[in-house]
Design brief:
Elements lengths: L1 E2 L1 E2 L2 E2 L16 E5 L2 E2 L6 E2 L5 E4 L9 E5 L22 E4 L23 E8 L2 E4 L17 E4 L5 E3 L2 E3 L13 E3 L10 E4 L21 E6 L7 E6 L5 E8 L10 E3 L12 E7 L2 E7 L15 E3 L5 E25 L2 E10 L25 E5 L8 E3 L5 E4 L6 E4 L2 E10 L3 E12 L15 E10 L15 H5 L4 E4 L11
Antiparallel strand pairs: 1-7, 2-3, 4-5, 4-8, 6-7, 9-10, 9-12, 10-11, 13-14, 15-33, 16-32, 17-24, 17-33, 18-19, 20-21, 20-23, 21-22, 24-25, 24-32, 25-31, 26-29, 26-32, 27-28, 27-31, 30-31
């Protein structure tokens, strides 16, 4: 019996419960480059081990090819959070009431074992423990016996190695996220966010496959306010109308309306109403044919309106792009189609993680392009700016210094100038359009004027007819109240390649 591993990491090949897929039929096993016959030369029923009918000799080579099909459709890579780990204790017991039919096996008290320590995880469903010579042993491998599992509570030395009590389920689940900075239309597959790399896709997170980094979820938090209304009761004890006191915000479909039962009467006497919406708010509530009976005019029945719901969408990323750094120079300019423009000098600092080739493709200068959207925050000059796009439509409205969302109207790379902490260095100059400088003038270079960042996510085809509106009316603060992109799989907490 040999463990199956890929680049030194133990893996399990397992068919979904109830599936007709036979794992052996999806694998090719070669011993010394000779194809082996499944079910005869070897056995692989699904798990982390392969069993050979005849043990390979010293120096023999074994290769295993597994047909994956289409990733994410035919096969899913699942990161399993261990329950039982090395260092835990297991106690095999006995239970005379445990159903063993049709084997008719009787379990006696002498089968109760003492605890033993797990020394190795063999597969998704089997482990090795320390050698055990105490009571409770049985040669009957068909017997089902209860087991008590206790998590490790103190550090131990097992086979000469220190095994700590830490475990993955105790670690924080950190899911990279980013705010949408440009509204996304129905069917659009390009999304601009405030930041993406390297948080979404550090290349040292796994040595084999990084496909798990591509699964994302779009969540439209936005502003959600529930509607409220009051029922009007007639002298006949029926509901004649419902007056809306608060239309609410963030509705995507007409909410359900429920009216309280008349006091002392059942649901058959209750009035029924329906609603309509306009612009995300409830604008009408109409009482139906059943207007109810037995309502008292002295007390208005409660009207319950369903709250707006958060919209979510799952998708897969084709590519991530983006970078972040500091603004070391600001100038003013005017170009064709841009009456009032600002020039930002963008620099990626020398100690930036983006320059680390182990974590991400080494990036020494910004890769922003004309037409891309980016944000400025933590700035220290200006009095609030309104940024524009190529058609002079508003991109973002800033209220604090020059913090805002901007569209790159023109990009010049390879510009040599003085930069903060760099001296003579190469920067990326980005021109943005604004409706007014609002008292801001060219401030020169070789200083810190704020942070910049941008991210561009390219999606697969979208199968959900949903748009997402970025909140750009209050600078950077505004976008934090709008739609957000979240990576479905949290960052790994260990085993990074360095």
């Amino acid at each position: 019996m040999f463990p199956i591993s890929e680049d030194g990491e133990r893996i399990t090949l397992q068919a979904k419960k109830g599936s007709l897929v036979n794992v052996e039929d999806c694998t090719l096993v070669f011993l010394n480059d000779i194809l082996q016959l499944p079910g005869s030369a070897y056995y692989l029923s699904g798990g982390s081990n392969i069993t050979f009918a005849e043990a390979p000799k010293s120096g023999d080579t074994v290769k295993l090819l597994f047909y994956r099909g289409t990733s994410g459709i035919d096969v899913r890579d699942v990161e399993v959070i261990d329950t039982v780990k090395i260092g835990d204790t297991l106690t095999i017991g006995q239970n005379p009431l445990l159903d063993q039919n049709p084997l008719s096996i009787k379990q006696d008290k002498f089968l109760q074992q003492d605890k033993r320590t797990v020394t190795e995880i063999i597969s998704a469903s089997s482990v090795n423990s320390n050698q055990y010579f105490m009571p409770g042993l049985s040669s009957n491998t068909e017997m089902l016996r209860p087991i008590v599992w206790c998590r490790q509570t103190e550090d131990k030395y097992i086979e000469g190695k220190l095994v700590t009590k830490k475990r993955e389920r105790y670690e924080p689940q950190i899911q990279p996220s980013a705010y949408i900075i440009k509204s996304v239309g129905i069917g659009s597959t390009t999304i601009f966010v405030d930041s993406a790399r390297p948080f979404f896709n550090p290349k040292n997170e796994h040595t084999v496959s990084l496909d798990f980094q591509k699964d994302i979820k779009i969540i439209n938090y936005g502003e959600k306010v529930s509607a409220a209304a009051t029922a009007v009761v007639s002298t006949a004890g029926t509901i004649t109308s419902i007056v809306i006191s608060e239309g609410g915000k963030g509705y995507l479909s007409a909410p359900e309306v429920s009216i309280e039962n008349p006091v002392g009467m059942g649901t058959t006497a209750r009035a029924i109403a329906s609603s309509t919406i306009s612009g995300g708010s409830v604008n009408t509530i109409t009482v139906g044919i059943q207007s109810g009976v037995g309502y008292a005019q002295t007390s208005h029945p409660n009207v319950l309106i369903s709250p707006p719901t958060f919209v979510t969408e799952e998708n897969s990323i084709v590519s991530y792009a983006g970078d972040f750094g500091i603004i070391t120079g600001i100038g003013t300019t005017s170009l064709t189609g841009i009456a009032t423009g600002l020039v930002f000098d963008l620099v990626i600092p020398s100690d930036s993680v983006l320059r680390n080739a182990t974590i991400t493709d080494a990036t020494t200068s910004s890769g922003i392009e004309t037409g891309f959207y980016f944000i400025v925050r933590n700035s220290n000059v200006g009095h609030g700016l309104t940024s524009l796009d190529a058609s002079s439509n508003t991109v973002g409205v800033g209220t604090t210094f020059i913090d805002n969302i901007y569209r790159a109207a023109h990009v010049t790379t390879g510009v040599t100038t003085d930069a903060l902490g760099f001296g003579q260095t190469t920067v990326t100059q980005v021109v943005v359009s604004v409706n007014s400088l609002n008292g801001l003038t060219g401030l020169g270079f070789s200083n810190f004027y704020g942070d910049y960042s941008w991210g561009k996510l390219q999606l697969n085809d979208r199968n959900k007819s949903q748009s997402y509106t970025a909140v750009t009316s209050n600078g950077y603060t505004g976008i934090t109240t709008g739609p957000v992109i979240v990576r479905k799989n949290p960052l790994k907490f260990q085993n990074y390649s360095v």
